[in-house]
Amino acid sequence: MTHQHPSRMGHPHPSVTSPSAPPIYQTTAFDVPDLDVLQALYEGKATGDVYTRDSNPNHTALAESIAIMEDAEAGAVFASGMGAAGSIFLALTSAGDHVILARALYGKTLQLASRMQQKFGLRISYFDADQPEQLKELLTEKTRFVLVETVSNPLLQVADIEAIAGSLSDSIPLVVDSTFTTPELIRPLNLGASIVFHSASKYLNGHGDVMLGVAAGKKSLIRQLSETSSIFGQNPNPFESWLCQRGLRTLPLRMKQICQTTLELARELSRHPAVQKVHHPLLPGHPSQPIASRLYPDGTGGILALELSGEGFSVVNRFMQAATGMPFSPTLADARTTISHPATTSHRFMTAEQRAGIGIRDELIRVSVGLEPLEQLKVEFSQVLEATAG
Ligand SMILES: Cc1ncc(COP(=O)(O)O)c(C=O)c1O
Q: Which of 199, 222, 248 is the last residue of a domain?
């Protein structure tokens, strides 16, 4: 008797019911019944997937969810936030073009731009995203986009999105990295941006177990990003899209609690003698406070930064060693509170002088506030700061 070969086993039977939770389509490719169907798929006359690097139901489901949440025509997914940023640079610029970047951007995004400059002669100008009037004299015939973060990493400068978009012609897209804020707190496309993107490794997923990027915006632009992502192999794994989709279900609850806890904790820490300065956009004295209060009535997310009293890396080391319950982790937006040190992580490729120029001191610690109760965090920070001060 000939047995069926194991390579042909394991496909579930068709069923009159469907799974209550979305299934994971962990497959490289999709079986195509005949050439007519294949033609129809490639010509867009039939809906379906062929090869996961180009499309997959888990990616499509997440891309559609992001598009809905961002009030966008279309969405796309990428292997990481940098996959999204890289696809934007590659899709929208050619050798010799010009882009304008906010001076305060995530370190790797700045590194990406400088690599594009070295390799392809991309010209870059910088401006302060809370001073949109600086843009006028930077724009040229060759400017292909302007890129800002809603709330910058790590000093939390807030971009005046509406004013920036208002000073650009329709042919120059405003690209907004909304990783820190999510569509729960702001929808940049409704304020005039053309593309919004996120490191979905952060709040959108929210559990510190995914590497993923997403973008949303006008259909024509998103199509260009998706094509680029497919050619350069920037699509994620279906499981990551599935996990992020699961994380999105609790995003509104998580962001509400995180925003409240973070602001209260920032107020508390700003009164502590072992802290020289607390950066939070809704605290009086923060340079972006007027813009933040206008754009973010529900809060600016879960990040605050604090400058410890004392000098150099040793005070940071003492803080880290005492903060056993709040681990040093070079990411943010985990469900638990974590700390990071921008000078030796995200901005380590800069010289000490360059860092000082953008206000990133050696004693600066970035805190990503998690879902723990406020009272617990107040007690823990107070203990850690006491131990740090010695
Ligand atoms: C503001 C911001 N944008 C983009 C990224 C890059 O995202 P990923 O780490 O998913 O590549 C990060 C990562 O920390 C970030 O903080």
A: 248
Taking a C-beta distance cutoff of 8 angstroms, is the pair 315, 388 a contact?
A: yes
- Judge residue 94's burial from the number of C-beta atoms within 10 Å of its C-beta, 0-12 exposed, 13-18 middle, 19 or more buried: exposed
Residue minimizing CA distance to atom 15 of ligand 1: 106
Distance 58 CA to ligand 1 centre (A): 22
Six-digit token string for 133:
């009037």
Within this chain, do residues 211 and 298 fall inside the same structural domain, yes or no?
Answer: no
pLDDT in tens, 268-294: 999 999 999 999 999 999 999 999 999
What value does the mean pLDDT of the chain take?
96
The answer to whether residue 168 is domain-embedded is yes
- Full domain range(s) for residue 81: 56-248
Cβ-contact 229, 105 below 8 angstroms:
no
For 227-237, write each residue's pLDDT tens digit: 999 999 999 99
Given this model, what pLDDT does residue 45 score?
97
Dist. CA 31 → ligand 1 center (Å) = 35
Cβ–ligand 1 contact at 149 (below 6 Å)? yes
342 and 196 both lie in a single domain: no
The answer as to whether 49 is a domain residue is no
> Probe ligand 1: pick from 202, 329, 338, 346, max atoms within 8 Å of CB?
202
80 lines ligand 1 (CB under 6 A): yes
**Domains in the chain, number:** 2
For range 350-374, the mean pLDDT: 92
Rounded percentage of the chain residues whose pLDDT exceeds 70: 100
Q: Residue 16 falls within a domain, yes or no? A: no
Q: Give domain status of residue 118, yes or no.
A: yes
pLDDT score, position 249? 97
Task: Decide: 153 in ligand 1 pocket, CB within 6 A.
Answer: yes
Tell me, in angstroms, the distance from the centre of ligand 1 to residue 207's CA: 15
Q: 305 and 367 share a domain?
A: yes
Same domain, 236 and 264: no
Rounded Cα distance between 65 and 242, Å, is 12
Q: Judge residue 42's burial from the number of C-beta atoms within 10 Å of its C-beta, 0-12 exposed, 13-18 middle, 19 or more buried.
A: exposed
Question: Do 80 and 110 have their domain in common?
Answer: yes
Is the CB of 104 within 6 Å of ligand 1?
no
For ligand 1, what atom is nearest to the CA of residue 82? 11
Specify the pTM: 0.96
Backbone φ/ψ region at 76: left (φ over 0), alpha (ψ -120 to 50), beta: beta
